[in-house]
Amino acid sequence: MKGNGTLCQKLYTDWGKNIDTDNVLSEYPRPLLKRDSYINLNGIWQYAFTSVNKKPNKFDGDILVPFSPEAPLSGVNRQLKPNEYLWYEKTVMYDSKKLSETRLVLHFGAVDQICTVYINSIKVCSHTGGYLPFDTDITNILKNYPTKNFFTLTVCVKDFSDTSYHARGKQSLNPKGMLYTAQSGIWQTVWLEYVPKNYIRKIITQPDLDKKILRIKLSQIPARAEIKITVNLNTDQQKQMKSKSVSTIRKCTQTLMSITIQQMMPAKKKHTQKNTVYHLHIMG
User: Fold this and answer.
1) CA 142, CA 184: separation in Å to the nearest integer?
2) Helix locations, the chain, DSSP H
3) Cβ(201)–Cβ(218) under 8 Å?
4) DSSP states of 155-183 as a string?
5) Residue 177, class by beta-carbon neighbours within 10 Å (0-12 exposed, 13-18 middle, 19+ buried)?
6) How far, in Å, CA of 189 to CA of 8, rounded?
7) Are strands 85-93 and 122-128 parallel, antiparallel or unpaired?
8) Residues 54, 120, 116, 86, Cα dihedral to 10°
9) Using an 8 Å Cβ cutoff, are 59 and 86 in contact?
10) Which candidate, 247, 194, 254, places its Cα nearest to that of 221?
């Protein structure tokens, strides 16, 4: 980078040069809460820059999500300025028949810095903070269109960068020295997933090695759902997994429980074996 902050040369890795726009960062972004119903929405979207907070009649072109418009991989190479709005849009296919028994949740890994999300031009949520994930349940809105198997997803982004008080790290509209080019818009994976009507939204685990206890904090929807935890035991001597139900919690909103090593072990093996791996399956 030159002293005035202009880019001298674009640097690509082998992966960047050979990127598959139909298969962009396809791995599940939350391994602790992985579900089989995962639908990745990364890929080609449409984009447009506007000077007013109004959806454009025509978009400027294609952008590769989840790369910010300032990044070469996005295909845009344009800075979002504080007095502008960045619009994204994509047509998303889904199975409307599943909505009778499940909920459909839309997830964003991160959008910098302030954004509003629309489904079929109806506002569903807003979010502020370029580093944090957020999600919204879009089931009820989609039930208004029972005969359709697709919807239009629109995102409007505003980024003040270093002209405001929002967290921004070392991003700058005038990059030089230790400061780097400000990034904006969608920069983490966007995905959908079908979830049961009673589902776990968040899991926090805290191992206490001295006391041989694993503390688990759960947040589930709805509040009065039943939660069941099953432990699968796997050792070097025992390749076949064995399951054991160790705890069932009922009617809690924020559930904090402790599971001991003794509870995890099968009844005939109350001692801890070397190279033992415990696989916890939490259902709710």
Assistant:
1) 29
2) 14-17, 139-142, 261-264
3) no
4) EEEE--GGGSSS--TTEESS--TT-EE--
5) exposed
6) 29
7) unpaired
8) -50
9) no
10) 254
Q: How many helices (H) and strands (E) does the chain have?
A: 3, 20
| Whole-number Å distance between alpha carbons of 138 and 102 | 11
Amino acid making up residue 58: K
At 219, the pLDDT band (50, 70, 90 cuts) reads confident
Q: Extract the tokens encoding 222.
A: 């709805």
How many angstroms separate the Cα of 168 from the Cα of each of 5, 7, 73, 79, 180? 18, 20, 21, 15, 11
Q: CA–CA separation, 62 vs 89, rounded Å?
A: 10
> Taking CA 103 as the corner, what is the angle to CA 98 and CA 104, rounded to the nearest 5 degrees?
90
Distance, in Å, from the CA atom of 159 to the CA atom of 139, rounded to the nearest integer, reads 29
Phi, psi of 215, deg, nearest 5: -95, 135
> Is residue 245 within 8 Å of residue 282, measured between CB atoms?
no
β-partners of residue 91 are 152
Specify which residues 90 forms β-bridges with: 153
Q: Cα–Cα distance between 198 and 134 in angstroms, integer?
A: 19
pLDDT digits (tens, 9 = 90+) for 64-109: 999 999 999 999 999 999 999 999 999 999 999 999 999 999 999 9
DSSP-derived secondary structure letter, 79: P
Helices (H), 54-161: 139-142
* pTM of the predicted model as reported, rounded to 2 decimal places: 0.82
- Buried/exposed 109-134: b ≥16 CB within 10 Å, e otherwise: bbbbbbbbbbbbeeebbebeebeeeb
d(CA 178, CA 169): 11
